[in-house]
Amino acid sequence: MATERARALAHADAAAVAAYAVPDSDAGMADRTVIERLRAEDTRFDGLELSVTPDGEADAGSGQRPTVAAVPVVLETSAHRLVDGNGEVLTAEVARRDAATLVMERTEDGWKVSEVRPR
C-alpha cells in the first residue's frame, strides 16, 4: 500500500489512488486533492518514499468475516523535496514518523484504506 501511494503521489496519478484507497473515502479524496494541486501548480515530489509498519493489534470487531478493521501503524515519510516543472526545489521536507490508525475496508479487490486517523 505504501509503495502504491508513493508512486501515485510522485507521478501525480489520480487513477492510481484506486489501488490502495476506497473510492470516495476520506483517504482517497485527500490524496486526489494533493495530486490535483500538484498538477495545477506543475510541481512534483522528488525522493518521496513511504512505509507503513504495524504497531499493535488490529481491531476488526467480533464478526467471522470482518469488513472494516482499525489498524494501528507507524507511518514513515522519507526526506523529500517539492520541485517545479524545471526541477527547481520549492520546499524540502525532513523525514518523519507518525503514529496513526488506518481504517481499512474489505473490497472486491482486497483490503484498502478508507481513513487515516492520527494517534
From TrEMBL:
Domain of life: Bacteria
Region (Disordered) location: 46-66
UniProt protein name: SnoaL-like domain-containing protein
Organism this protein belongs to: Micrococcus lylae
